[in-house]
Amino acid sequence: MTTASVSASDVISPPDLEVVNMTKQFGSLVALDHVSMHLKPGTFHALLGENGAGKSTLVKCIMGFYQPTSGDVLVGKRSREIASPKDAHQYGIGMVYQHFTSVPAMTVAENLVLSRFDPSVMIRWQEERDRLQAFMDQAPFQVDLEVPVAQLAAGQKQKLEILKQLYLNSRILILDEPTSVLTPGEADEVLGLLRQEVTNGRLSVLMISHKFREVMTFTDEVTVLRKGKFAGHGLVKDLTIADLSSMMLGEAREPKIVDKVITTADRPVLEFTDIHANKDNGLPAVRGTSLTVYSGEIVGIAGVSGNGQRELVEVLSGQRSPTTGTVVVNGTPYGATRSEMFHNGVFSLPEEPLRNACVPHMSVAENMALRTFDRPPQSKGSFLRLGSIRQMANRLIQQFSVKTPTPETPISHLSGGNVQRAVLARELSSDQINLLIAANPCFGLDFSAVEFIHGQIVAARNRGVAVLLVSEDLDELLSLADRIVVMSDGEFVYESAIADADLSTIGQRMAGH
């Protein structure tokens, strides 16, 4: 019998999982310092902490991805040596990582089969497809089995990561920011399903999350880390959001609020008309969308991931050619070339910035100079002036609070929040910015990073910048946008000023109704 064919009635109750005095060092850096945690059988446990608190390091040690410097992992009250994720799987532990682990060139079906740790050398694909389709028919959301993962939008990729563990019948499921690219409705659906499995005693869940609402709604217990150390624990029913925040931050901290100023949004900055664009596989993704974004306003595009938002942003950013349609910026036709971006003051905060906005092996300073390295004072003729590039980087690192050992540190060594801060510094430091295109700019970031980025976006809007904000986080859009547009099946199906927005209608349009 394969792992995938085990019925619900055959599933053994999840074992007890305990981490005891775990320490993990990377050279002189102590990422974990004598941390202990207990995941009781059949419970939903949240792991909280700001970026860099040690959460991902802890769970990767449990999974065998890292080997702890000291400490112990107990499964079923017995010490276990977990040298790899395959070992963890033998003890019924599976993980959905924050960064996707599927093979892009392979189909959804192939990735599901690949995830099984199956020693078989022969795959009977007709049987596999029948089994996979039966599994997918019972799943809470659908992903086309025959589509290559590279063609999936970020939200669909995240769903596939969760589906892989449900398919494997993992009894202890570790989730690293599982709902970062899901709508609130999708998040509630997925976590509700997992909550039901936990309540029925078939699953234990340990979830890293930055969303207090999800923690308060779905989890039983919480453990908090701060700067690599244990900072607190408790039953969720006995804690308030203020308690959680205090444990995470170590001190009372009022959120920074950047108030919107009254602006006269009367100058069209971005105008696109009847845009059509295809997916990577040639099928239609964007179907005749038209929109105008004015100076001093934030227009938010909401929608379930995979409804054409990614392709539309790529058209506007010059990464994908439209099949038909026109784009105009500041009253002139716009082709999104580098020179046109500079001339028109167009800047962007893309989704997954380490892949879409940075050169990972290059330094923080070099990445901050990608827009300006060939212009004075950072260059003279055909020669780069490295001193000027470093001076500019030092100023931006301080101004945007980028945590990096040095400006020469490869940007891939930074945490996700600090990579986004570095991109934000590069994109918003110009005095000539007229248009900002932001796509899921806070994906996977902690509270302080989200707060900072939101503040910078609103501050840009207050200075008269036109902002197009594409996000799968409806709460983010409702908080920041002046106007909201819903995109479904490649089309704009709803538009309203935020003050007049009907949440029920927005939800229905996002769901395709």
Task: Give an overview of the whole structure.
Helices cover 32% and strands 25% of the residues. The chain has 513 residues and is an alpha/beta fold. Strand 9 and strand 10 (229-235) form a beta hairpin. Helix 14 packs parallel to helix 15 (447-462). The chain is globular, with a radius of gyration of 24 Å. Residues 1-11 and 252-256 have low confidence and may be disordered.
Q: How many domains is the backbone divided into?
A: 2
For the terminal residues, how far apart are their CA atoms?
41 Å
State Rg: 24 Å
What percent strand? 15-25%
The CATH homologous superfamily of the largest domain is called P-loop containing nucleotide triphosphate hydrolases
**Second-tier CATH architecture of the largest domain:** 3-Layer(aba) Sandwich
The biggest sheet amounts to: 6 strands, mixed
Silhouette: globular
What's the average pLDDT?
Answer: 86
CATH domain class name of the largest domain: Alpha Beta
* Class based on secondary structure composition and strand pairing: alpha/beta
CATH topology of the largest domain: Rossmann fold
Record field, number of beta strands: 22
Number of DSSP helices? 17
Proportion of residues in helical segments: 25-40%
Residue windows where pLDDT falls under 50 for at least 5 positions: 1-11, 252-256
Strand order of the largest sheet: 6-7-8-3-9-10
